[in-house]
Amino acid sequence: MKQEISALMDGELFEDDAGKVLDQLKRDSTTRKNWAAYHLIGDVLRQPDHIHSDLSAKIRERMRDEPALLVPRSNMANQKMRMFALSAVASLSAVGVVVWMSLQISPELAPQAAMHAANTQIQPSSENYLIAHEEFSPSTDMNGSASYIRTVSYGSDEAAPKKTPSEKQAK
Amino acid sequence: MKLRIALCGALLIVANAYAEERSSGLDWLEVAAFAGHQTDYSGVFVYQYGNHVETSNIVHINDAGGEYEKLESLDGPKREIIRHDGQVWSYINHQMVQIDSQQGHSRFPFLLPEQLSALNTNYQAKLLGQERVAGYNAQVILFQPKDNLRYTHKVWVHTDSGLLLKASVLGDKNQVAEQYAFTQLQIGGKIDRSWGGRCDLVDVHGKDSSNPPKSVKGITPTNSGWVADMLPVGFKKTMEILRSMHGKDAPVVQIVYSDGLSAISIFVEPNDGDEDDVDGLSSRGAVNLYHKVLNQYLITVVGEVPPHTVMQVVDSVRYNGK
Amino acid sequence: MAERDVDQQLVERVQRGDKQAFDLLVSKYQRKLGRLISRFVRDPAEAEDVTQDAFIKAYRALPGFRGESAFYTWLYRIGINTAKNYLLANKRRAPTSTPFDTDDAESFEEASLLREVSTPENELMSKQVVDVVQASLQQLPEDLRSALTLREIEGLSYEEIASVMNCPVGTVRSRIFRAREAVAENLRPLLETSKGKRW
Q1: Can you give the residue range of the structural domain that contains B272?
Q2: Could you tell me the sign of the dihedral formed by the alpha carbons of B196, A134, B39, B164, in that order?
Q3: DSSP state of B261
Q4: What is the mean pLDDT of chain B?
């Protein structure tokens, strides 16, 4: 049985055998201890600096007040087959949405978009706008200061905020 | 009849599965925004756009003293950005300059509920499975816009800590407009504090006592009367302020709109006649900028949106006040 | 049956009313979740408390879990949310002082509970566990040690390990088991003596 537990936690048992081991785990506390010990070993090997004392007894204690769950079968976790069958349909409908959306866009924009693949780099004299913009952009929330790298990017030596009005870049 | 019922049922479930995937994509984003502020980390990341590749070192610490972050370019002349809570300093040319001050900008929550719901309306979130970035396992999430007025965003979120490991902005035909990616990252543990944190800030101040940090004078909410009629659907005004800006004597109006993932800023200021050669479009990575002179005013639109969107917005800016 | 499916099976059992199956998920994920939460909540004792809360929250939320994502990503998200709420609540209550220095009874009780977790004794225990595991690993015959390391640290499947070690899959399976069992054998006295605190 111990060897089956070891294989089960590695995801290397066939479904029938797995069911038997899981039943055994439910019945037998020694089997559960082995399960816990094997997992502890794995965690020690992976993250030796983050081993804390066992919380399972405390959690079991608190679980005593929790009701057992009775989730209707149709709502349960193992719905792989259905999810798979549906995802094909879902992606079809996604295409539908995209096509519909692109029809909504005013037609004159498309050629403009093609014309203006902006190839001019933002001038250092305009960087203050960038900085002021980044401050309130959601991308700053996500990327943190990384967003500001745009503003300390190329040619930034001249971009040091200055009082002399715009040293014009020769054009 | 039977068939029709089955079909209805199937559609309902499809809608459900759809909604769930979408919301779990948003969950990840929320987790990432949160983790980005709360996690201590240090590492090297690469910022790429066009042919440019830049490598920077970043250190982020959040402790009792607040949130500190230091970014240092590893290529070219030394440039640094230091953030402490809402304040941003830049260390360029041996001078420490405060470039931003988000007064009253709270550290929580990072993605506001309104932002998330806006995001939900304007983008379709898709979970794309898992990939490895900088040696960490990451969940890949794609945010596809529902029109061609914004970019596609693809993010890689560390499944464990929730940190953003990589982010790409994709233009049409899915070419990469810009990309951030960690190439080396240490999460948690002992972060080398000589790199960042309060001491370092003080240190820099001390060295340059002849050049004390210059402060941004202030930001006041305003109702300027300037409007833009042609914003893409879903961009909501998040603020309208009168602010000082470096290199400008007069205060500048800034109006910010956001669709949850990207923002568009409109700047309006008196045209001092000096800037008439700046007209036109320029870009850096995913950010596009357009200057335009309108009567006595210089209008500047900046955003992480495609060039045609910036132009569309610029052309629709007008004064609607009394 | 892949590792992810094992979690699904356990989740399904919990959803059918088997509370013991949840215990197995706790013993599997408590340290991973604990590590994640400790990145947000720095104090080890507080982090352990938040980890407990997160598991209870996960249990209560399990009826809504349908397996669209892997169980562990779902659990991690709950963990992060719990940590976030904890930090928010603490911020509101006592922005600078530690949360345990008030004299109202409830928080006193909470504090004593937490202190118990991080007694030097417990920390010593954790260190002993780590030492025993690492020492036992070193004593293992080379082929057992490699098999276990490839599995636990590199995360390879039995089939991949078989091709790396150039042996049948059945041998890999038995080597990994024997390695685990040998280490567990050394660990058991330690785990048994701390029966009260339970590992």
Answers
A1: 219-319
A2: negative
A3: S
A4: 75
For chain B, the domain total comes to 2
Q: Which residue has the higher pLDDT, A106 or B130?
A: B130
Mean predicted confidence (pLDDT) in B307-315: 91
Q: What is the pLDDT of residues C92-135, one digit of tens each?
A: 443 333 333 333 334 434 444 444 445 566 777 888 999 999 99
One domain for residues B163 and B292: no
Assign B97 a pLDDT band (cuts: 50, 70, 90).
low
- Summarize pLDDT for A57-73 with one digit per residue, the tens: 899 999 888 888 877 76
Mean pLDDT of A110-133: 62
Q: Rounded to the nearest 5 degrees, what angle is found at the Cα of B29, between the Cα atoms of B100 and B34?
A: 55
pLDDT of residue B109: 33
Q: B24 with B112, same domain?
A: yes
Q: From B78, C181, C52, select the one nearest A37 (Cα to Cα).
A: C181
Residues B273 and B247 in one domain: yes
CATH of the domain at B153: 2.50.20.10
CA distance to partner chain C, nearest, from residue B192 (Å):
16
Same domain assignment for residues B184 and B273: no
The phi and psi torsions of B180 (rounded to 5 degrees) equal -110, 135
Cα A52 to Cα C35: distance, rounded to the nearest angstrom: 9
Question: Closest partner residue to A79 among C67, C117, C184, by Cβ?
Answer: C67
When scoring B14, B87, B122, B268 by the number of chain A Cβ atoms within 10 A, the one with the most, hence best to mutate, is: B14
B96, B15: one domain: yes
Percent of chain B scoring above 70 in pLDDT: 70
B237 in the same domain as B158:
no
Out of A136, A138, A153, the one facing B54 most closely (by C-beta) is A153
State the pLDDT confidence band at B302, using cuts at 50, 70 and 90: very high
Predicted TM-score (pTM) of this structure: 0.52
With beta carbons under 8 A apart, name residues in chain C contacting B35.
39-40, 80
pLDDT, average across residues B224-238 = 88
Are B161 and B31 contained in the same domain? yes
Structural element, H or E, at residue A33: helix A29-46
Mutate to test the interface with A, among B246, B256, B313 (most CBs of A within 10 A): B246
What contacts A28, CB < 8 A, 6 or more positions away? none
- Read off the tokens for B137: 């396992």
Same structural domain for residues B81 and B227? no
**C120-139 vs A29-46: helix axis angle to the nearest 10?**
80
What average pLDDT does range B28-41 have in this prediction? 75
Residues of C with CB under 8 A from a CB of B: 32, 35-36, 38-40, 42, 66, 68-69, 72-73, 76-77, 80, 83-84, 87-88, 91, 96
CA-CA-CA-CA dihedral for B115, B120, B121, B122, to nearest 10: 80
Contacts of A51 in chain C (CB under 8 A): 31, 126, 129-130
User: Domain boundary at B172, B205, B238, which?
Assistant: B205
DSSP string, C162-176: HHHHTS-HHHHHHHH
Degrees to nearest 5, angle at CA A75 with A70 and A76: 70
Among candidates A22, A35, A52 on the partner chain, residue whose Cβ is nearest the Cβ of C44: A52
Last residue of a domain, one of B147, B180, B205: B205
Token pair for residue B193? 């504090």
Average pLDDT value for residue range B126-154: 89
Asked, for residue B228, whether it belongs to a domain, the answer is: yes
Q: What is the pLDDT of residues A7-58, one digit of tens each?
A: 999 999 888 888 889 999 988 889 999 999 999 999 999 888 888 888 988 9
- Please, is B264 exposed, middle or buried when counting C-beta atoms within 10 Å of its C-beta (0-12, 13-18, 19+)? buried
